[in-house]
Structures are given as structure tokens and as C-alpha cells.
Amino acid sequence: MEDGRKRKLLATASCQGLASDCLMDRLSELPEEVAHHILSFLEIKDLTCFGCVSKRCRKLYLSTPSLKFDGFFSKQLQRYDERLRLWSYLDNYLFHRWVSRIQRFHFHWVLHSYGSQQILQEDEKFRLDKFICNAIKCNVEVLDIKIKSWGSGAPLPTCVLHSGSLKSLSVYIYGRIIKAPSLASFSNLECLKLEGTVLVDDGLFNWISCSCKCIKELSLKSVSMYNATSSCNVTIESSSLESLCIERLSFIHHLYIAGEKLEQIIIDWRFGFRSDKPHTDKSLGICAPNLNSLNWRGSLMNQPNLGRLECLEEASICLLPSVDEFVYVSEVLSCLSSAKVLTLNKETTMALFKGGSMPLLENVWYLCIHIEGFLDFQVPAMASLLGGMSKLNTLIIKSDSFFRGPKAECCGFNIGYWKLQNAAFIYQLKEVTVELSHGSNGIEFDRYILDHAQNLNKMTIVHSPQQSSAMSELKKSKMASNITLVFQEDQERGPQNRTRRRVV
Predict the structure, then answer these.
(1) Cα(88)–Cα(131) distance, rounded to whole angstroms?
(2) What is the pTM of this model?
(3) C-alpha distance across the termini of the chain, in Å
(4) Residue 452 domain-assigned (yes or no)
């Protein structure tokens, strides 16, 4: 019996050996670029295990152009000697693949806190900088650096922005100082993303405008300035830039953006707390004739100059105007006359309704607005806004779940008022979503749509439990039997403040 067991074990081992050899033969037959693509999905720990299998695997391990140095945050790396061994391994790996180009280098690290042992902290920072510089020497093209718990005061290695091989750079190191290269130092960067970093001065913006002739994407989030003055003027002017994102840069007072190829701009610019006075010391200028998408959030300044946006198709305007800035909201929206998709937050919508002069937005086919409720003073302004939208296809009206105003303020306009408007928007509508507030104005608006929207396919009405009986009446107003009519009962809109919805 023992001889039978031995023969079975030998047969099993033989089969496993054949399977392993077969697997290796299949791997060796793959083109190198295919094998490298497969290995690009592995983190460095798994890649290291792969490199120990055979000489062929080791060659692929040392030549793979895409590296992920991540996943080193376990409890096993709390002691300095353990982290030191890891650093030695990482340095040794880059040394052995010295001549092999790195196409993508993904490096995420958590800097350990050694308490009172400041010298250990500084040593690890030094090793981090050395490791980044060694990666740069491998002619890396795409560099993604994310280091947590860094602190402030230390500059980013100068070799990073001086690299001639870099095409994409993403840096997230809180408090890390970045000093711009000289204007004579030209860059091949196509994508630059900075988050949480600190600029020495405004030299980086000048360097981007003058020396980054290939840049297509620029993203600056939560970037501060080390020596910010009371008035910092920032100009970003590029003939190659296609996408720009600026978020939470509080040191900017005057911002000017220019680019013939700019297609997307995202701006989140807040000046602090909302004020009862307009921000006369702030200005925004945009010269982007081919802009396709604009997402603007934050504060509003006097007389923003958005230029001619004849190619604009999508705009999301979520501003926080002060009490005296409602007139500028209308001016901003007038610059968006070519937009086909438009989203407005509640503050922007309410300021627009107070302004009196309604912009002509005749190209809009998708509109999403947020209002306080269907208040009597809002209805004429809403009718004026919708009246100029002859191509409107999708309409979404959001309202506050509970508005603390007298009910009489929401009962002054019935279906007859909307009929008298003879607005062209009603004939192209295909999908409508309306969140009702209290009162009858919103219900009468819904009845008007159901009675007159000839091309309507679907309508969703969000209502309070107290409005359920009125919803039963609306079911009879369906113009065509093929319309999908959905009622959503929202408990938040009633006196019981619960977050449960029931679809009827």
C-alpha cells in the first residue's frame, strides 16, 4: 500500500511539474510588450514574487516599464529597521534596472512618525527624495507621487520639474514646497497635477505659460503660496492647454485664463465667508473661444469677463452671490447663450430670479435648476426663463424639502397663467422631473405640462405625503396613455422629518 501511495505522489508531482513547465513555455512565448502589460497590474510586492520564479521572469521583472510602489502601510512596517530594509530593497531594485526606461511610476507612501526621534524622520525624508531622483534618472514619463503626513518646509527635488522625459506629473504631498524652474528651462510636460503643495511665488504660472509648450492638462487643488501678498495676480496663458482645473486657491485676487485650445475649465474659487458686499477687489477673465465645458463654483465678483463662448455646450454654474450681485448673475448667464446643457444651484437661480433681466438661452435642451419653492414671486421669473428655451428637451426642477414660508405665497398662479404664456418650451419636452414644495403653484405647473407637452415620454413628481390626494388628480391629466408617470412620496417634505421614499 505504501508503494502505491509513493507512485501516486510521484505521478502528482510529475503532473505539477509538467503544468509548471507548460505555463513557463506559454509565458516565454508571449511578446515582451504583452507580458509587460500583464505585469503592469501588479504591485511591487507581487512583481517581486514573480521575479523569483525563473531567469525569464527576473528579466521581465527588471524591465517592466510600469511600476506600482504601493501597499507599504501595514503594521509590519512601524519599526525603523523594518522600513530601512524596505528602502534598501527599493534602492537595489532601481539600481539593477538602471538602463531600463520607466514609462509609468506610481509611488504612494505614508511617512511614519517617530515621535521625538526627529533624526529618523529626516532620514526617511532624505531616502524618499533620493528614491524619487533615482526614478527620474530612469527617464520616467508618467510620475504619480502621493506622500501622506509630510509636514512643511521641505522643497520638492528640483530634478522633478527639470526632467526632460516627464510627460505627466501628479504630486500630492501636503505642505511640500515647489519652486518653479527658470523660464529658460523648457518642459515636455503634457499633464501637471498638484494638490496640497506650497508655491514659493507666482513663478510656476509664468513657467507654465512660457516654458510648457506641450501642456494639455493642468490641475491645481488646495495649492497655497508661501509668500502670498495682499494682491496676487495669476495669468495662465497657453496655446496648447486643453483642460484646466483650479480649486481652492485662496491667494488669487485676479485670475486671467487664455487658450485657443481650451475645451474644459473647472473653477472652484471661494473668497471666504459670504458677504453682504460684492467682491470689488476680485476679477476673473477668460479668453477661450473654443471652450466646450465650463464648471464654475464658488464666489462671484463684479463684472466677470467670460469672453465669447460660441462653442460652449455644457455649463454648470454654482455660485454664492452676495445680496448686491444678482445683476452680475444675469451677465454671466448671458455669456452662456450657446450652452446646450445648463445646471444652476439654488443661490444662482434665486439671484437670477431677483435680477429682473432674464438672459436668452434659446439653445438649452437640458436644464437643471434648484429653487427654494414655487413661490409667487418666482413663478413669473421662471416663466420668463423657460419662455426663451424653444429647444428644451429635459427639465429638472429641484426645490427645498421644507420651506418655512406662508402657504399663501405659493398659491397665486394656476394652470391658466401658464396657458397665457404660450411658451415654446412645452412642445419639445420629453422628460421632466419636479420636486414639489408646499402650496399649489407647483402642482398647477405639473398639470400644465401633462396637459400640453405633446412629446412627453416620462414625468417624475416628488411630493410630500400631504399632497398624495392632489397626485391622484394629476394622474387624470395625462395627455397620452404612453407617458410614464412616476410619483415619489418623500417623507422629508412632510412634518415628519424622515428620509424614506416610496414610489407609487
Answers:
(1) 10
(2) 0.84
(3) 72
(4) yes
